[in-house]
């Protein structure tokens, strides 16, 4: 079988409703597959004002807005319209990217037809309850995820560190790597813009500690804020530059009244914003890869990150950044202090991170997923006539 013979039904919980690393990666994958001659049909919830135009053919799934997080919609069971569309498309492989209700139904639909199923794991869903005072629910959620992922033929995840977590949790026995790439025409040190910094009130000689990502509690906003409080208490001079939007912005602004909030940035503006930081601070433990970490590295920034899935596979501790035990406020502050007070160290570790970022080519990375589709089709027993 050739790439051009692939017919992929891709199920996504959020293909283009908001902008995040997972749906950007899915859109890039579809673009690559279409460019290679494969046929792809995407099934996802939709909303009236998506964050960006979808790549490929998009079929809207029945869904409802998540209470308190209306920017997201939760897909429901596959209705007759969707099932008829699937039958007419006649996929030879099914790809599910979020363990929601529609994905469960899609896996059942595929298994009844002996079609191979690939699941991509994009985030640490099992860690989310701890950010909403529901840590007691994590074991049950992990068990539900295990039931879902074991019904799939294989999993792919963005980093070896996350793959090992999935192995340890016994989620599946066929787990591969679908890494992430970075667009170096957008993210590079040359995008730094002193004039833009000055417009935001950041002087050339001020060290900007950056936060990049959606402003939601599961990104570690509490740890970030507590660490900045310690820097302030120790009278270590710095500024905070926050790039991103989200429902927790009001909370974050109240916690960091002296920070500069640049809001949502996209495309070349995003590259400019990242390159105009001096160090990225990423305390999140929910990412399976950490696109923001890679983007910062490509811009020549040292990264201070939680020693967790994703960042552990990107940051070389003591060479391109610092990896700190999750939640260790004092150690995060000490790592940031080193970069704030030592411009030569910032430059040295930033250059090492930029060199590492050059290993991530989108086409090579997405070909690994296509190769997995082809392998699963070869391995899957054919349905009896």
In short:
Residues 20-184 form the Glycosyltransferase subfamily 4-like N-terminal domain. The chain has 385 residues and is α/β, with parallel strands linked by helices.
Describe the structure.
Residues 20-184 form the Glycosyltransferase subfamily 4-like N-terminal domain. GO terms for molecular function: glycosyltransferase activity. By secondary structure, the chain is of the alpha/beta class. Strand 8, helix 5 and strand 9 (175-177) form a beta-alpha-beta unit. It is built from 13 helices and 15 strands. Strands 3-2-1-6-7-8-9 form a 7-stranded parallel sheet, sandwiched between helices. Strands 12-11-10-13-14-15 form a 6-stranded parallel sheet, sandwiched between helices. Strands 4-5 form a two-stranded antiparallel sheet. It has helices at residues 21-35, 80-89, 101-112, 138-150, 160-168, 194-199, 221-233, 249-255, 267-275, 291-298, 329-341, 343-357, 362-379, and strands at 7-11, 39-44, 57-60, 63-66, 69-75, 93-96, 117-120, 154-157, 175-177, 208-212, 239-243, 260-263, 279-282, 303-306, 321-324. The protein has 2 domains: 3-181 and 361-379, Rossmann fold (3-Layer(aba) Sandwich), CATH 3.40.50.2000; 189-357, Rossmann fold (3-Layer(aba) Sandwich), CATH 3.40.50.2000. The chain starts with 6 loop residues before the first strand and ends in a 6-residue tail after the last helix. Helix 1 (21-35) crosses helix 13 (362-379), helix 7 (221-233) crosses helix 11 and helix 10 crosses helix 12 (343-357).
Q: Portion of residues in helices? A: 25-40%
Q: What number is the mean pLDDT?
A: 91
Strand portion = 15-25%
In which order are the strands of the major sheet placed? 3-2-1-6-7-8-9
**How many strand elements?**
15
CATH homologous superfamily title of the largest domain:
Glycogen Phosphorylase B
CATH topology of the largest domain: Rossmann fold
Number of helices: 13
Instruction: Give the number of domains.
Output: 2
Please identify the top-level CATH class of the largest domain.
Alpha Beta
Which H/E pattern describes the elements?
Answer: EHEEEEHEHEHEHEHEHEHEHEHEEHHH
Structural class estimated from helices and strands: alpha/beta
Sheet having the most strands: 7 strands, parallel
CATH architecture of the largest domain, by name, is: 3-Layer(aba) Sandwich
Overall outline: elongated
Task: State the end-to-end CA separation.
Answer: 21 Å
* Rg of Cα set: 21 Å
